Amino acid sequence: GWSRKWCVLQDHLLAFFDQQPTSHSASEAESIEVVPWTDLEALVLVPPTGIDLHLRGGRTVSLRADSADRSLEWTADILRLAAAHAVRLLARALGGEWELVYVDEDAQLMGDG
């Protein structure tokens, strides 16, 4: 069955808690489980409010939000942090061959007129 847990997205991992963490208690040491971004292999939306995280080793963590909008918000945040982590890993692996370019979010894409 389902049980209520809290998930905190951090720079390098997802941390799960039995109780709602405060800003002071949201540490890895106090979490009940930690999932490093490097273990995330796929993210699957399960309408209307679900998100399944497929992890290395064949394990799946199923999350449910309180609304469809909140589910999409969580999905975007998870993907954003996982992508940022991947960029940092590439930068580290490629060293001097890599250049990180920051883009203004308000800038128009080429061809948008």
TrEMBL record:
Looking up PROSITE patterns in the UniProt record yields: PH_DOMAIN
Ranges for the PH domain? Answer: 1-83
Q: Which InterPro entries match?
A: PH-like_dom_sf, PH_domain
Q: Which Gene3D superfamilies match?
A: Pleckstrin-homology domain (PH domain)/Phosphotyrosine-binding domain (PTB) (2.30.29.30)
Q: What is this protein called?
A: PH domain-containing protein
Taxonomic lineage is:
Eukaryota, Haptista, Haptophyta, Prymnesiophyceae, Prymnesiales
